[in-house]
Design goal:
The chain has about 800 residues and is an alpha+beta fold. Strands 21, 24, 25, 28, 29 and 30 form a six-stranded antiparallel β-sheet that branches. The relative contact order is 0.09.
Length: about 800
């Protein structure tokens, strides 16, 4: 009996050991997110777009992902198609092209389109509908940058494009090199045929390569309810004529390109653009039916940074020493941004999205309730370096709650893996090996003791901020998708969407994970960094502009109402929310003094949106002055004169061209206040004199500028101080508020000059005829002999005040440094 008992005990131990050895390893849940964010490249009204790259991304990256996922039904991913992006698609392209295109006959009414939209839409589509021999100077700039000032043109492509389309290289101008390719063509000698070929190629390369390999069935129907097909492949052929040869990966044009081909290309552009939203509708994940592959994220209506709109002081949470502009505290703006995004999503996809996209490092406790109340379940979060390096913590899903116990699920992006994914995705070399390497790292990432590990990675293809177009490297993704599909069959990696993980999916044997069972995440584990959107001088100035406009609407007692009967008030509010797009403020983080025209145009668009708000309010019946919003982008804050004036400006208030051509200038950053007079200060010098000029603000009510009116009617006194280089920005002394009193660190007052000027109907100051003052309309000019300036051989700053009796009316902090004298 004892022997039998020992035998059974040994038998059971063997079974246990064998079962442990052969116990299958638990699968890893992989949450793969794609952030297809896009800034608004659209100006206001019917102005042309600044860039075609929204269209290029739509026809290549965004359609391409949805199209390829259909091959792998067990591959599930999460995608942020922002509301701003889709509105651009519809308003800038579909609404304008559709009335002019017949899909059944593949006909394009070029004449009708030109009459309605030429010069008011995408300039690179305008090139396709304009005969190459009729292009004007601006269109030639869009084509090949003849002026040298058009930053984005048909050569805004990278080396990958030229490698795939060798005929492109033949068109490169001789003053340009892209990668290893050097141009040989003179910009002055492009023939009509070459212009036609160039505009065609630039638009052709924007498509997903799948369209060049054969006809593709599209998820849209023509007027006869038949499925539409792309036919882009008819224009290209393989360089060596052998598509099965892996070395034959270059495209040549199959025929000589004509204007008719360019018109037909517009039809193909429309067909693919019109297919983007239907393509995602076919694969969108439905939580109720547990069917679909792509979970689409909600985004704020105009990509506003909710935490900063709710309360800009939220930036202090993770950066206590950050320098912030005047507090922006308008929770209703954050609420409406979210509601507008939700309404936009429902109108397109007929459902409430379970997740909300929030920008990296911008989640404060004050928005949790706002988001949860709209039915959102989860959001992606970024954590600090310490937590990101802890694999035990990074393989879970957390719960984020506020002081009122409002809760949201939080999926944490693993930084090291996300960086690797972004790096691999832009390089097609050894793409199969890279795909295998990446997914094997995912398999081995979770520690063995973690149950049901979840790994979240983020692909952010637009994060580079580059303004050149490159081909999407689909080889890596196709290999990744293929290998991920085989790992699903082997039960090693299960790609899962957050909603699928939280609510469960019986068909795929995924259990649910309710909020109540998730671990709370601590605030000190989160990444709180708002420096992409606020804290630097340019960003803060843009926030001040926005704050001033909003305060004006509050002063007018205007509340947002999407059903407001007055169309102009509705349009004003649309511009307000468009100006809250976080991408404006991300743009202003750029400190490069040599800003390209793309950034400068975007700066113009932002400020023009603010001006349009006042324009629409005046159309609505209000009589309000339109304030000036000076350029946010300035070279190191100012433009200094490069050399002495080549000729003397006439001091009469009429603004000689020399001020603009050779003078320095600085915008008054405080000039957004309605009571301010100064908009911009100019300065320059020659061997004998220093020249200063003020540009005043326009007044809607008075034909004269407020500056001229103040000098002529109000007898203002202008006080100019010159101070040494070492003394920086100065302010006036409020306690001793008299003209000529300056709060300064200058100990030796002999180092400082004070000049007073006045011009009215009865008197002129100074009586010294060696100095001069002139004011006319918007401009006030004056000159000061250098011999009257102390320490004339040193660099000086100039500080300007405008006084009415003993009241300071306006002031200008300082010009740049001017080295005067010999």
């Amino acid at each position: 009996m004892l022997l039998l008992r020992k035998f059974w005990l040994l038998f059971l131990m063997c079974i246990l050991i064998f079962s442990c050895k052969n116990k299958p390893k638990q699968p890893v849940y992989l949450n793969m997110m794609f952030n297809f964010k896009q800034a608004s490249y659209k100006g206001v009204s019917f102005k042309p777009l600044n860039s075609p790259f929204t269209r290029f991304n739509l026809t290549q990256k965004y359609f391409g992902l949805a199209h390829r996922l259909k091959k792998y039904p067990q591959l599930h991913v999460t995608v942020n198609l922002s509301s701003t992006l889709l509105k651009q698609l519809e308003q800038n392209y579909l609404e304008r092209l559709k009335p002019n295109i017949n899909l059944t006959n593949e006909d394009f009414d070029v004449k009708k389109f030109r009459l309605t939209y030429l010069g008011k839409s995408d300039p690179w589509i305008d090139l396709l509908v304009t005969n190459s021999w009729e292009m004007d100077r601006k269109q030639r700039d869009y084509l090949y940058n003849r002026s040298g000032k058009q930053n984005i043109n048909c050569f805004s492509v990278d080396e990958s494009v030229l490698e795939k389309f060798p005929e492109y290289i033949e068109l490169l101008p001789d003053d340009m090199q892209i990668g290893r390719f050097k141009g040989v063509k003179s910009r002055k000698n492009y023939t009509v045929k070459e212009r036609t070929k160039l505009k065609f190629l630039f638009n052709l390369v924007s498509f997903d390569p799948v369209f060049l390999q054969g006809a593709v069935k599209l998820p849209i129907r023509n007027e006869q309810y038949q499925w539409a097909y792309s036919k882009l492949h008819k224009w290209v052929k393989w360089e060596k004529g052998d598509p099965d040869n892996p070395d034959d990966d270059k495209y040549l044009l199959a025929k000589e390109i004509t204007e008719k081909d360019c018109h037909q290309l517009v039809v193909e552009i429309y067909k693919v653009l019109a297919s983007v939203i239907p393509a995602y509708k076919k694969v969108i994940y439905d939580e109720r039916k547990e069917r679909g592959q792509v979970e689409l994220l909600l985004s704020p209506g105009n990509n506003g940074i909710l935490s900063l709109l709710q309360d800009s002081d939220a930036a202090k949470q993770g950066q206590p020493g950050i320098e912030l502009p005047a507090r922006y505290f308008l929770p209703e703006d954050a609420s409406w941004q979210l509601r507008l995004g939700l309404a936009d999503f429902k109108s397109r996809f007929n459902k409430v999205p379970p997740g909300l996209w929030v920008e990296k490092g911008t989640v404060s406790n004050n928005i949790i309730k706002l988001i949860a109340n709209e039915g959102v379940q989860w959001m992606p979060l970024h954590v600090n370096e310490k937590m990101n390096s802890d694999k035990n913590k990074m393989c879970g899903v957390y719960c984020k709650k506020d002081a009122e116990n409002n809760k949201l699920a939080a999926f944490l992006s693993v930084k090291t893996l996300s960086v690797k994914l972004n790096k691999y995705s832009v390089d097609d070399s050894s793409s199969k090996e890279k795909a295998v390497d990446f997914l094997n790292e995912i398999k081995n990432y979770p520690p063995a003791e973690i149950k049901e590990p979840v790994v979240t990675v983020l692909n952010d293809p637009d994060e580079s901020g580059d303004f050149t177009f490159s081909l999407q490297r689909w080889s890596f993704w196709e290999n990744l998708f293929n290998y991920a599909d085989s790992l699903y069959v082997a039960n090693e990696i299960i790609t899962v969407t957050p909603a699928e993980y939280l609510n469960g999916n019986k068909k795929r044997k995924i259990s649910n994970h309710p909020l109540s069972k998730l671990i709370l995440i601590e605030d000190n584990d989160l990444l709180n960094n708002y420096s992409e959107w606020i804290g630097e001088d340019k960003q803060n100035l843009a926030w001040e502009y926005l704050t001033n406009v909003r305060e004006k609407l509050i002063e007018m007692n205007l509340q947002y109402n999407p059903e407001h009967p007055n169309i102009w008030i509705k349009k004003a509010w649309e511009e307000i929310y468009a100006a809250q797009n976080g991408e404006w403020f991300r743009l202003y983080k750029n400190n490069d003094p040599q800003m390209n025209t793309f950034c400068l145009n975007r700066d113009d668009n932002f400020r023009e949106r603010l001006n349009r708000i006042y324009y629409y309010l005046n159309r609505a019946g209000f009589e309000i002055d339109v304030p000036d919003f000076p350029d946010v982008f300035q070279e190191n804050g100012l433009h200094n004169p490069a050399k002495p004036f080549s000729s003397d400006p006439t001091i009469n208030g009429r603004q000689d061209k020399i001020w603009l051509l050779e003078g320095g200038y600085l915008n008054d950053k405080d000039g957004i206040n309605e009571e301010d007079l100064i908009y911009r200060v100019f300065w320059g010098y020659d061997e004998e004199k220093l020249y200063l000029a003020l540009k005043g603000k326009k007044s809607k009510k008075n034909k004269k500028s407020t500056l001229e009116k103040a000098f002529i009617d109000d007898s203002l006194i202008m006080v100019v101080y010159s101070i040494p280089e070492s003394k920086k920005r100065l302010t006036y002394d409020e306690k001793n508020s008299k003209p000529g009193i300056l709060k300064t660190a200058v100990k030796n007052k002999k180092e400082m000059d004070i000049f007073k000027f006045r011009k009215d109907s009865t008197s002129v100051i100074p009586p010294d005829t060696s100095m001069a003052i002139g004011v006319k309309n918007m401009f006030l000019e004056l000159s000061i002999p250098i011999e009257k300036i102390k320490n004339k051989n040193k660099k000086k700053r100039f500080f300007i005040q405008l006084w009415k009796e003993d009241k300071l009316v306006d002031y200008f902090p300082n010009t740049g440094l001017i080295e005067i004298g010999n």
